[in-house]
Amino acid sequence: MSTLALSLGSLACILLLIGLRIPLGIAMGGVAVFGLAYLSNWNVALNVLGDAPFLFAANWELSAIPMFLLMGAVASNSGIGTALFRAARVWFGRLPGGLAVATNWACAGFGAASGSSIAAAAVMARIAIPEMIRNKYDKGLAAGVCASGGTLDSLIPPSITFIIYGIFAEVSVAQLLLAGVFPGLLTAAVYMIMIVTRAWLNPALAPAVVFDDEAELRRERWESLMAIWPVLVLIVGVIGGLYAGFVTPTEGGAVGALLAIGIGLLQGKLDRAGLIESFKDAVFTTAQLFFVGMGAVIYTKFLALAGTAQMFVDLIGDWAVNPLLLVIAVSIIYVILGMFLDPLGMILLTIPVFVPMFAALNLDLVWFGVIVVKYVGIGLLTPPVGFNIFVVATATNNEIPLKTIFKGCFWFLGCEVIIMTLLIAFPQISLWLPQSMY
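Request: output the structure for the sequence above.
Response:
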């Protein structure tokens, strides 16, 4: 059987199992084990099954992930997401599409307190969509901005995706985290321009929010800023600590989690039950992520044995000697993979192939990491397997059809064409901040 047939056949089996509601980690790992047995023998397959999960989970640098997840869980249970949305609502509410713009920037702010795109999409969907629906917003726009805004969390530090890329690409995680700041803000800004333009051209899409009392509005604005000071503390503690070199990413995660717990207790918004729930959320999400990661590692080993990496090299061919053509080829591959694979699978499958190519052309691997993470975020929105789409649908109890959410995200995917063009054409957007560390 050819490499292409094996690769596509295994992917089809994984999608079928996912459709049958088999957990993703089991689907990827199970298909990989049978694939390894087919390509070699059962002894090899079982040895990989026994060794790969331990080798993945035992990586010390991955310990930053549960810390950042705990930080995000505490922030969520402390009401930071709600405070951010309320602040953004009173400051941006008068713009065309003001509630959608507020949701967009609330997602960006929540990114400084959470490293998970899926968690951000779920939190903001529960908070913002009911408010937008009450104000007669288009359901596609309301759901689309939550799903798309959630991807900002993979760029704005702390970012779990950057941590995983940095570990497997052997690139400084601290530099990667800082490299995501300006691309994240650029993405939020382009999203805002698109929302405002659409709402201005078609007011029925997002009716204006009316504030009756001007004096009351001014008071609410300043009170709302007082309510989001915890986010500023977390930004200074984590991003500031990384920039100054006071903490490593793992230590930054611990500092962030400790600060989030201290702030929650100080404000009286985090009781014993909320703290226990936060630990449960962090443990559950960490276990879920690591379980998927173990399946992805085993599946990556199968693809490596099947020759998929070499197939990518052959597909790119002579394009690999020209930086621009290489970036275009890699972009096409990532867009295609993002339609079918989970973020972790995309990274683990492609990093061993693409990183040496970029290094051979002396292209900056921190910049490439930003490109990869952006394409991972795009993959969270593209059909048929757009994870953020399903998260938003679940958060709204499936009251908004998947078709409507996908349709609402198409406008944001259109924005991504502009954003990716800027990031590729001007690498300093990503590199200025981490380079200024030194």
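The chain has two domains: 1-58+293-306, 59-270+307-435.
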